[in-house]
Structures are given as structure tokens and as C-alpha cells.
């Protein structure tokens, strides 16, 4: 009797906490959608007549072309890497993930710095070879340029997911096809593409969400998309109502994309219950073919990592003396500490919700696990607007409390503090932490915890003494992923940070936007280095898990 | 067993509370970020704790020297919050009556007007300011005051354009400049204020015609900032660019030798000298509606408009001083004197919205 009472009680506490967190995620975003019902103001008519079309068309062009190109590059690379052997394969296997370490906005201004009239390429051609080419060959600040940037720096999403699928799941099918005498091309088209469709779509939808979330690249290149429009109407025109309205439309588009993804993915499922890891036997590519494979990988690696990093390193050498002052260390420190703190909170919340969902297989738990994913699909600018409205309302409600604590307290306490930013990070990045933890739980199953429960421990004890130790690797990898993402995050941080609060990301972006590209390089380089280290640790950790 | 869970939830609460607390602390810090540097220079004779809190979009080291000078003179500490202009205005609005800000410094009359419209500023009736700052460079209700002046001028390729071919902004729309004009996007406030000035002077119809004519003559779709337009001239993409004067100053003094070369191969032309005058704009200052240290704030306004501060304040950004008793820098003098548009700059704000709408309607990206 006593035991059931305990179980019931702790069940409630886990579920109450889960419920609170989930409501906190849903509420601000619902609020945004509700605004669609309100009557628009006069600005809106103007925006609708002259601007909205542009936002939609530009965003769609970016999404479609980036989607197609990342698919092509992502699949071909993952196929080459997992099915063949050639010089440098081992290096490229993980080297091709590295473009992810460079946030697209940093890539954008770096490439602009390389290519523009006073950049290294044109200056060298002019000064040493006396060659002056038409500017159209160097025009990266355009739609084409942004598609290039997004493609080269986001394709790893497709590459990683497809590669791990091919390596782990496809060996039998592909080897059978080889035995049956199919040519390489036929295998690729008739076997590889169909079976990896789900992972490709999974990867591409991540790419698309990233493109819609981006503010830095499009703002720097002057392309009007939804996220620049939200900033412009909010800060430029001072019209928060219309900004909310634009956000709501973008939110609807995102939901439509997620729905399409579900439909495409859901119809056919190639799930392999056999999780035994068996890699494909790699065919060796000799002579020209091997060289071609090497060159292809090398070209992508250079564009996506080597060239921009070298350029940033060069600029850093030029400017580090000027940049590395106390101020610099201060915002590096605040950048790291806010990322660590938020990542920690996110992992704790993710554990609570994931543990609840695992223990309860009902409608509510399914809803919870879906909701955590929502945040990651919502573009930063939209979350920012949702969070700020929510916090100002909250401050108005809590004003009496502030007064109680401090008579002279101002009305806006939470909404001028860093809490707001951390809250927004949690909404946006909870999905990443949650996925890691959830997959960790899935791997260990329920047997151990059930045994522990039968032996008289409650959920909390079971979690601390049994589950926690077993899912530790997932906790670590989840933490790393979230940490890196927060470190690179731009739009949320730009809008929601308290004043005089800078992070490495906002500082890089501001320098670059003030035409001080060289000065932006040091903080950018630090972001990249930390990302590389994290990716490396993460890769090591998942390799260990796999073997 | 129950205790464990309690402990977990309690510690979670504690973490959240700590976060909130940390947040409050940082926000307090931002209210007095410069205290440390100014402390040493505080004057003993004056009563302590005299401060003025300034929101500014300028980030020049020479400004700090001026604030230091001000503190030495008056014993009033200057606390500075730096940010982007639009964000500063948005923040002021959000903080409402609770704001710590006493003063707002921001570029462009259009923005200052927006701050006024949002009821973030208040009138200042002060003879020193009236003496130091010409009437057309301050708000009609004296809610903001210009501190530095920049012109938006025509920059031309020294190789391909003879300045005698240049005359007016209107002339830029004539057929001879087809595919020759470089200018940045209309989302930029400098272009909005330029068009607003034409609405004020020539009326809406003519202004719209002008904008259409420019779009027709553009060498490429608008991209990049003002500096990028100068680079595009030298790269041969177009012959003429519409730019703010101070960017040429900045490029001439750039740490990148390639930029210096670019700046040296373009010329500055002040249009409409025989007609309506060259478009000018200001970077200005306004007293916050809910300022807590108004007296100190007005003292700082007086100081910044005074002869001794104006030179340094303007030169930091290669701009013209508003105070007519102060001479501009050698570089600016070398470009010669010029006739300016004869309108009150408040008009730029008044017509900003219409200007933005026109840009959108005619498709200036």
C-alpha cells in the first residue's frame, strides 16, 4: 500500500513538471497564432500589397534550391564515403562534417570578404597579374550567393543522416544487388535512393528549417525573407503587430513543411529491427576514379571548411592585437557561461519529460514528445517575438510581487533580464536535448528500471541509481549538441539579450555588419574552434556507442 | 524517497531563481556600465552620485575622452549604454516610465523623429543649445538636437566621369546615366530620409518620379552598404554612387590599403548647388521623456554642442560639426563648402513613412 502511494506521488511530480514545461513552450507560440484572428492595422495592407509576395517568393526560392542542392551533394558524398574506398576516405568521412562548425552567417561575410573588390582574390589578380574581371563573377551578395552559402554549410545534415543509415542498414541490400550484377549507377538509383529516402527527407527538412531560421546570411546579403521582414517591421517600422502577423504566416508555412515531411516519410517505412551493425564492404576505387572521388570530396571540404577557416585565421592574425582586450574576454566568458547554463537546464528538462514519456504510454506523453520538437522548427525571430510578448505580460502580472520585494522596483524585471533569453533558448533547443535523451532511454529499454521498481525503488531513485548511469553517454552528447547550437545562435540572442550583453556570435555579426570584417574574425574563429572540438568529442562518443 | 524528488525540484527551482537573479544583476550592471572608468576622475567639490545615463549608437573611443572631459568639468559621471539605433529606440519604448536613460544619441533625423513620435523624448528650452545649433538642424518642438552633419552626395569615378557632367539629384534620372547608378537598398534609413527630403521640397509626385528614374538607371540591384557602392564604382560596375560623405573619410583612413585605393579613385560631388541644395542629415541627441537626471542631461547636451567638444565629436566620424563657429576637418574642407537643403530636418521624419511606401510601390529593393 505504502509503495503504491509513493509511486503515485512521484509519478505526479514528474508529470506535473513535464506539464509545466510543455505549457511554457506551447503558450507563447499559440499566442502568436492567435494574432492571425485579430484585425490587421493599416501598415499590414501596405505590407500585403507590396512586400509579402517578395518575402514568400524569396524564402521559397532559398528553401527549394538549397533543398535540392544539399540533397544532391549530401547523398552523393554519403554514398561515395560509405560504399567506396579511395585515398583520403577516412579523413573525409569526418572532415565533411566540419562545414557544420561554421555558422552560415560567418561563412557569408567571410566569402564576401574573400570575393569582393578589395578581397584577396581580386586584389591579387589586379596587383600581381594586372587582371580585372567583371564583378559578376564575384557577386556573392545575391540570391545565388545565399543558396551557395546555405548549400555548402548545411549539406552535412543530409550527409550525416544518410551516411549513418547507409553504413548501418543497407549492407545486405546493396551487396545483394552487387551480386546480382547491377551496375554502380543502377544500384545507386534503384536501391540506395529508395531505401534512404526517409533519412534524406529527414536531413533535408533540417536544412530547410535552418534556412528559414537564418537571419544573419540574408540580412548581410540584403535578401528580403521572412526573418528579415520580421526584424524590419518590428525594429524599423516599430510595428510589432504586423511583425507578429508575419511570424504567424511563417509559422503556418513551417507546420505545412513538417506535415509534408510526415506524409512523405510515413507512407513507406524501411525499418530494420536488426540493429546489428554491419558495414558495407567497400569497393576500392582505383586510378582516375579514385582521384576523382578524392577531388570531389576535397573540393567540397575546401569550400565548406578549409578556405573560409584559413581566411579567418589570416584576418585574425591581422587584428588580434587590437581585438583581444578585457572587453573581448568578458563577452567570450558570458557567451560560454550562458551556453553552458542553458544547455544544462535544457538537458535537465529533457530528462524529466523524456522519463515521463517513457513511463507513460498515453496520448499526453505522445503530445509531449511532439511538442518538444516544435521549438526547433520555429525560426528564431518568431520565438523571439513570442517570448518577448509573453514576458512583458508576465512582468505586468508579477509587478505586485516585485514591489513587495523592492519598493522601487521597476515594472520590467524579467523582460530586461537574461532569463528571457535563456527561456527562449530552452524553447528552441529542447528538441535537440530531448532527442538524445529519448534515444538513450530507447536503447536501454524499460527492463532495468522495471526491475528496480519491483525491487522497491521509486521512479526518482530508479532514475538516479539505474537509468542515469546507463544513459550518461546520451546526456553528454545531447549536452554537447545543445551547447554548440547555443554558442552559434544569432537571431534570438540579437533580439532578446539584455543591453551590453554580447556573445561571440552577436559580436561577430555586429562587426561584420559595421563593415569591420577583419575585426569579426577572431570571435568567429573561436566559435569555429569550439564547434570543431565538440563535433570531434561527439563523433568519438557516438563511434564508441556504435561499436 | 519523497525527499529526493523534493530535493530535485527544489534545486531546480533554485537554479531558475538564480538565473533570474543573475539576470537582474546584469541588467543593473548595464545601467551603470562605465562607472569604473569614470570613478577616478570624479570631482570632490561637487556632490557625489551625480550621473547622466546615455543611450548611444556611436562607438568611438574619442567619445569616451569627451565624456571624461565633461566629468572633470562638472563632476557628473556619464554612464553609457551602446547599441544599435533601432534597438535602442525599441528598448526605450519598452522600458517606458521605468527607463534609466536620460539621453538618446542616434544617427538620422528620421529615427529621432520616430523616437519623438513614440513619445520617448521631451522638449528642451535652452538658450545655449539654441545658440549653438542652427534652427533647421533641430526638432520643431526642440525634442531633439543635431550634433553632427553629414551630406548624402554623388560619388563619381575619377576615371570615367567629368564632374562638369554632374549637376543635380534629378539629373541622375536622365537617360545618359542609364545603368550607371549605384545605390544601396531602400530599407536603409539614409535613402528613406533622402526621398523624404524630396517629398518635402518637391512634393510627393516628383519624389516618386525621381525614385522611379533612379531604379530605371540602376547599374545593378541594390546590394551592400555605402562603402560597397564606392567599391563597385572602382570595379567598373557603375559610374556614380549615392553615398554619405563620412564613408569616404572612413575609407581614406581604413586599415585596408585596398580600401584606401578605392577611396582615392573616386570624387565627391555636392549636387543641387544652383537649385535646392545638397541633402544633409544629422546625428542628434534628445532628452528622454522619463529622464531622472534632466539637469545633468541638459548640461551634457550643452557640452556636446559647445565649441570645445564639437570638433572632436564630429571628426570621430568624419562629419561636419553643427556648431557654425567650429570649422570642419581638413579633409572635409578640401571638398569645399556647399549649399544645403533648406528644410527643417523634422520633415525627414514626417515623410519617412510615405518615403518607405513609395520605395515599396515602385520596387526599389
UniProtKB/TrEMBL annotation, chain A:
GO cellular component: plasma membrane
Annotated keywords: Cell inner membrane, Cell membrane, Membrane, Transmembrane, Transmembrane helix, Transport
Subcellular location: Cell inner membrane; Cell membrane
Short name of any one Pfam family annotated for the protein: BPD_transp_1
GO terms under biological process: transmembrane transport
PANTHER family associated with the record: FE(3+)-TRANSPORT SYSTEM PERMEASE PROTEIN FBPB 2, INNER MEMBRANE ABC TRANSPORTER PERMEASE PROTEIN YDCV
Official protein name in the record: Iron(III) transport system permease protein
Source organism of the structure: Paramaledivibacter caminithermalis (strain DSM 15212 / CIP 107654 / DViRD3)
UniProtKB/TrEMBL annotation, chain B:
Domain of life from the UniProt record: Bacteria
Keyword NAD (UniProt): no
Key words of the record: Ion transport, Iron, Iron transport, Metal-binding, Signal, Transport
Signal sequence annotation: 1-22
GO biological process annotation, one example: iron ion transport
Binding-site residues, Fe cation: 59, 246-247
Record flagged with keyword Transport: yes
GO molecular function, one term: metal ion binding
SUPFAM superfamilies (UniProt xref): Periplasmic binding protein-like II
Pfam families per UniProt: SBP_bac_8
PROSITE patterns to which the protein is assigned, alphabetical: PROKAR_LIPOPROTEIN (PS51257)
GO annotation, cellular component aspect: outer membrane-bounded periplasmic space
Family: Belongs to the bacterial solute-binding protein 1 family.
Official protein name in the record: Iron(III) transport system substrate-binding protein
Amino acid at each position: 500500500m505504502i509503495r503504491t502511494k509513493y509511486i503515485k506521488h512521484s509519478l505526479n511530480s514528474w508529470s506535473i513538471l513535464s506539464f509545466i514545461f510543455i505549457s511554457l513552450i506551447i503558450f507563447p507560440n499559440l499566442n502568436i497564432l492567435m494574432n492571425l484572428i485579430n484585425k490587421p492595422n493599416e501598415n499590414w495592407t501596405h505590407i500585403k500589397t507590396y512586400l509579402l509576395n517578395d518575402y514568400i517568393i524569396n524564402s521559397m526560392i532559398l528553401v527549394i534550391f538549397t533543398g535540392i542542392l544539399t540533397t544532391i551533394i549530401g547523398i552523393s558524398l554519403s554514398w561515395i564515403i560509405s560504399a567506396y574506398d579511395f585515398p583520403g576516405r577516412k579523413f573525409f568521412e569526418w572532415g565533411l562534417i566540419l562545414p557544420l562548425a561554421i555558422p552560415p552567417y560567418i561563412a557569408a561575410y567571410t566569402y564576401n570578404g574573400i570575393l569582393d573588390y578589395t578581397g584577396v582574390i581580386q586584389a591579387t589578380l589586379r596587383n600581381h597579374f594586372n587582371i580585372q574581371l567583371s564583378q559578376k563573377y564575384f557577386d556573392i551578395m545575391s540570391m545565388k550567393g545565399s543558396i551557395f552559402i546555405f548549400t555548402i554549410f548545411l549539406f552535412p545534415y543530409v550527409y550525416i543522416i544518410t551516411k549513418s543509415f547507409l553504413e548501418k542498414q543497407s549492407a545486405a541490400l546493396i551487396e545483394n544487388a552487387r551480386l546480382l550484377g547491377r551496375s554502380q549507377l543502377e544500384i545507386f538509383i534503384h536501391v540506395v535512393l529508395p531505401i534512404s529516402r526517409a533519412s534524406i527527407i529527414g536531413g533535408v527538412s533540417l536544412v530547410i528549417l535552418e534556412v528559414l531560421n537564418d537571419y544573419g546570411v540574408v540580412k548581410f546579403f540584403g535578401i528580403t525573407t521572412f526573418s528579415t521582414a520580421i526584424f524590419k517591421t518590428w525594429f524599423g517600422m516599430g510595428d510589432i503587430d504586423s511583425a507578429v502577423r508575419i511570424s504567424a504566416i511563417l509559422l503556418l508555412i513551417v507546420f505545412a513543411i513538417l506535415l509534408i515531411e510526415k506524409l512523405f516519410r510515413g507512407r513507406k517505412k524501411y525499418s530494420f529491427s536488426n540493429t546489428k551493425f554491419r558495414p558495407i564492404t567497400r569497393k576500392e576505387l582505383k586510378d582516375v576514379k579514385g582521384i576523382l572521388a578524392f577531388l570531389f570530396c576535397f573540393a567540397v571540404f575546401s569550400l565548406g571548411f578549409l578556405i573560409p577557416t584559413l581566411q579567418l585565421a589570416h584576418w585574425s592574425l591581422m587584428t588580434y592585437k587590437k581585438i583581444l582586450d578585457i572587453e573581448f574576454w568578458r563577452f567570450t566568458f558570458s557567451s560560454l557561461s550562458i551556453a553552458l547554463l542553458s544547455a544544462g537546464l535544457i538537458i535537465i528538462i529533457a530528462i524529466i519529460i523524456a522519463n515521463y514519456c517513457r513511463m507513460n504510454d498515453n496520448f499526453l506523453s505522445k503530445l509531449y514528445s511532439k511538442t518538444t520538437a516544435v521549438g526547433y522548427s520555429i525560426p528564431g525571430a518568431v520565438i523571439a517575438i513570442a517570448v518577448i510578448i509573453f514576458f512583458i505580460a508576465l512582468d505586468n502580472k508579477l509587478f505586485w510581487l516585485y514591489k513587495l520585494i523592492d519598493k522601487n522596483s521597476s515594472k520590467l524585471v524579467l523582460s530586461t533580464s537574461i532569463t528571457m533569453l535563456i527561456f527562449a533558448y530552452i524553447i528552441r533547443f529542447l528538441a535537440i536535448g530531448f532527442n538524445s535523451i529519448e534515444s538513450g532511454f530507447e536503447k536501454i529499454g524499460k527492463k532495468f528500471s522495471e526491475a528496480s521498481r519491483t525491487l522497491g525503488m521509486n521512479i526518482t531513485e530508479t532514475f538516479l541509481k539505474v537509468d542515469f548511469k546507463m544513459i550518461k553517454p546520451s546526456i553528454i552528447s545531447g549536452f554537447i549538441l545543445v551547447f554548440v547550437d547555443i554558442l552559434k545562435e544569432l537571431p534570438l540572442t540579437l533580439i532578446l539579450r539584455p543591453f551590453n550583453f554580447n556573445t561571440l556570435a552577436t559580436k561577430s555579426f555586429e562587426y561584420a555588419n559595421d563593415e569591420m570584417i577583419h575585426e569579426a574574425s577572431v570571435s568567429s574563429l573561436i566559435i569555429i574552434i569550439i564547434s570543431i572540438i565538440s563535433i570531434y568529442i561527439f563523433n568519438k562518443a557516438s563511434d564508441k556507442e556504435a561499436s | 524517497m519523497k525527499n529526493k524528488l523534493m530535493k530535485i525540484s527544489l534545486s531546480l527551482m533554485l537554479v531558475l531563481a538564480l538565473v533570474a537573479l543573475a539576470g537582474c544583476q546584469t541588467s543593473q550592471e548595464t545601467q551603470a556600465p562605465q562607472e569604473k572608468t569614470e570613478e577616478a576622475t570624479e570631482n570632490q567639490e561637487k556632490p557625489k552620485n551625480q550621473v547622466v545615463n546615455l543611450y548611444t549608437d556611436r562607438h568611438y573611443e574619442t567619445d569616451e575622452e569627451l565624456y571624461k572631459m565633461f566629468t572633470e568639468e562638472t563632476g557628473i559621471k556619464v554612464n553609457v549604454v551602446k547599441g544599435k539605433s533601432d534597438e535602442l529606440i525599441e528598448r526605450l519604448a519598452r522600458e517606458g516610465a521605468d527607463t534609466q536613460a536620460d539621453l538618446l544619441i542616434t544617427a538620422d533625423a528620421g529615427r529621432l523623429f520616430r523616437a519623438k513620435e513614440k513619445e520617448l523624448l521631451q522638449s528642451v528650452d535652452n538658450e545655449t543649445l539654441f545658440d549653438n545649433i542652427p534652427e533647421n538642424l533641430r526638432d520643431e518642438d526642440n525634442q531633439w538636437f543635431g550634433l553632427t552633419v553629414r551630406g548624402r552626395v554623388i560619388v563619381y569615378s575619377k576615371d570615367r566621369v567629368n564632374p562638369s557632367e554632374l549637376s543635380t539629384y534629378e539629373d541622375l534620372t536622365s537617360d545618359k546615366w542609364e545603368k550607371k547608378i549605384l545605390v544601396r537598398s531602400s530599407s536603409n534609413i539614409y535613402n528613406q530620409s533622402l526621398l523624404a527630403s524630396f517629398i518635402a521640397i518637391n512634393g510627393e509626385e516628383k519624389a516618386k518620379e525621381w525614385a522611379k528614374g533612379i531604379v530605371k538607371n540602376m547599374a545593378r540591384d541594390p546590394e551592400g552598404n555605402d562603402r560597397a557602392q564606392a567599391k563597385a564604382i572602382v570595379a567598373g560596375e557603375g559610374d556614380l554612387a549615392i553615398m554619405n560623405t563620412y564613408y569616404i573619410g572612413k575609407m581614406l583612413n581604413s586599415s585596408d590599403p585596398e580600401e584606401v585605393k578605392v577611396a582615392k579613385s573616386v570624387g565627391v560631388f555636392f549636387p543641387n548647388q544652383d537649385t535646392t541644395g545638397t541633402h544633409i542629415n544629422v546625428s542628434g541627441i534628445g532628452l528622454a521623456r522619463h529622464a531622472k537626471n534632466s539637469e545633468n542631461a541638459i548640461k551634457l547636451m550643452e557640452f556636446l554642442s559647445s565649441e570645445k567638444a564639437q570638433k572632436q565629436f564630429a571628426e570621430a566620424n568624419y562629419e561636419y560639426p553643427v556648431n557654425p563657429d567650429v570649422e570642419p576637418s581638413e579633409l572635409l574642407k578640401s571638398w569645399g563648402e556647399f549649399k544645403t537643403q533648406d528644410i527643417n530636418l523634422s520633415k525627414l521624419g514626417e515623410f519617412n513613412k510615405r518615403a518607405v511606401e513609395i520605395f515599396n510601390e515602385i520596387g526599389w529593393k
